[in-house]
Amino acid sequence: MASEGLVVGLDIGTTKVCAIIGERNEYGTLEITGIGTSPSTGLRKGVVVNIEATLRSVAAAIESAEMMSGREVHACYTGIGGSHIEGINSRGVVAVTGKNRETREIAQADIDRVIEAARAVVIPMDRQVLHVIPQTYIVDDQKGIRNPLDMIGVRLEAEVHIITGSVTSAQNLVKCVNRAGFRVQDLILQSLAAGRAVLTPEEKELGVVLIDLGGGTTDILVYSEGAPYYTATIPVGGSQVTSDISILKNISFESAEKIKIQAGCCWEALLDSEEDVLVPGVGGRPPVSIPRIQILRIIQPRIEEIFHLAKEKIDKLNLIRPLAGGIVLTGGGSQLVGVAELAAHIFNVPVRVGVPLSVGGLVEEYRNPTYATAVGLVLEGADREVMSHSERGETRNRDRSQGSLVSKLAEWLKKEFF
């Protein structure tokens, strides 16, 4: 079967690669029909360091999703992240040329020009622009306009959030996917995709912080008045927690990961003081039973460190109004017991763990914070395809109307002169 009508999200993380297939049913509604994951070994802190290992993980994850959905994948929307990602806010100003010179009505061409003016910031040669997201428009000093189309004005300003990334990191990511046999339709920032999957429009409007606790990195995305305002990455994640357990308890990384998932906790009030954890012995030694609170004492300081680093960055922001939407935690690390309680204690705002909003299809399988980015990539990809279809439709209509105008003129010339 061809991949027509399919929207595929590919989340290439430091610890796992996740592929999710979405397709539209007969009513045009998007449904998730395939999910595939594979361990990832070719990335460090969100950046590709081993192309061969990464392309094997990509191929395995997509193959697994194909098996579940019974469809063949040819192209995908791929997530990009890592410490090289940077976000900047910029402003552009243009004079309105308008559809009608007398009334100065703002046309789509004016909006495109003002966004182009806002994105004209000087960035180093080794960086590329990944996204330019409009935050708000100003028409003749009237602020807070979401969509200025058809409004009347002389001067149009736009405030935008520009997300940039390293050119080589993006190229290596695309190369891995291409060599695995798939085409990258677009690169989308991972935290932007996760936000699309787990945040509600009300939260974005009120102002909210999304903290995506990944394996190699922790991504922060701040929304203010409905639009992204700040993007940052902390180069510490869940793998660091596993590494701490492995070093302090002298066990393998794999055993430490199992203990973290099964017995990990970072809020003491949720622990049963009598509970024990079985730590496997190394080199044929018998396993040892230790109190679970010992594992908490290893995990909690590291998660606290991540939250304090995030708080430092957020506290520096010059926000006009407080982030009333609080904090939404997502990603694999947000499944740790007590993580929301610890975050609420440090940030002193309401905190919830964000799971992907229900899309339809295999709901039980993907409603898990681990899949937030991959589900978001499918939703973001589907949105882009709808937009490009409508743009193509507009172009066809324009061509048709121009064509009919030309034929009418030809008819008139024939009648009059021939």
What keywords describe this structure?
single chain; 418 residues; alpha+beta; Dna Ligase, domain 1; Nucleotidyltransferase, domain 5; 5-stranded mixed β-sheet; 18 strands; 39% helix; ATPase_NBD; Cell division protein FtsA; Cell_div_FtsA; cell inner membrane
Report on this structure.
This protein has 418 residues and is α+β, with helices and mostly antiparallel strands. Among the domains are: 86-164, 2-Layer Sandwich (Dna Ligase, domain 1); 201-356, Nucleotidyltransferase, domain 5, CATH 3.30.420.40. Helix content is 39%, strand content 28%. Strands 3-2-1-6-11 form a 5-stranded mixed β-sheet, with helices on both faces. Strands 14-13-12-17-18 form a 5-stranded mixed β-sheet, sandwiched between helices. The radius of gyration is 25 Å and the shape is globular. The termini are far apart. InterPro entries: ATPase_NBD, Cell_div_FtsA, FtsA/MreB, SHS2_FtsA. One of its GO terms (biological process) is FtsZ-dependent cytokinesis. It is found in: Cell inner membrane.
